[in-house]
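Hey L., structure's done. Input below.
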Amino acid sequence: MINEVRNSVLSVLNKNNYGYISPSDFNLFAQNAQMEIYEEYFSSYNKVINAENSRGSGTDYADIEAPLSETLETFLVTNYLSNVSANSYSVPSVTTTGNTAYYILKLLCRPTVLASGTNTAVSASNLVDSAASFSSNTISQGDIVVNTSTNTTAKVVSVTSATTILLDANIFLATNRNYKIISSDSKEADKVSVGKITMLNSSPLTQPNNLYPSYTLEGDRIKIYPTTVNSYGQIEAVYFRHPIPPKWTYITLANGEPVFDQSQSDYQDFELPLEDAYKLVTKILEYCGMSIRETEVTQFGMTQQAHEQPTFSVQQ
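Output:
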């Protein structure tokens, strides 16, 4: 889609010889336009919900919420959070989870550690610990095994013996790797303010516990309470991630003209649905108009958006 959007933008600009937008400028404008539209999804969703509550939204083919929800859910991911120190975890980022959190929907806390130790042998998709006494009475299918030496996880398939557990992934590739087995039973942690958590912890009646955990957000750190929750695999975040910045990649011909080449390793298409291509064109044209200082281009983009019937919005 990104090449079609760029061609449309250049076609509008070249019609009256307004100028040329370099690939680097286009990529920058495309990233900003994609983020604008992405943020509009959330405000549009709010309008849809309000319309439904006031009986102003239809059903069946007129159900606006369904396609909007599906679009938003393409950005919904679940990842374990990296433990920094004690009960402090990193907010999802490119370096920790591979993507950046836009909005954390909920945190799942798994406070119960069933067993821990060090593996003594390597067996494909198995945890082997000759010093352990695994039992199906305490460890069951679905519980989480964490290789704490590499921060990789797998789920228990079955307890095959007192010293061996069958896993659904091969996470132990060497011996002498520390592990923890965490119960799959999870509780949703309540978000509280930094000021409020002090008050809650001051009383044994209100302080967070394994049944009712809480968390605070402090910069790029999430702190979990109770503080006994302090290792990788115990906190799982469900969140909306930022869309990946688009990048129009190209090769340069002898005459210097860039030609689209999606085989480049850093190529990235828009992550928005195809029906939003029109919005992308108009928003990018706004940025182009400001860049080349042509008010007509900016006004064209703004006018087209004003007359646009948004795919996922409710008219006010």
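The chain is about 30% helix and 25% strand. The first strand starts at residue 76 and ends at 80.

-- N.
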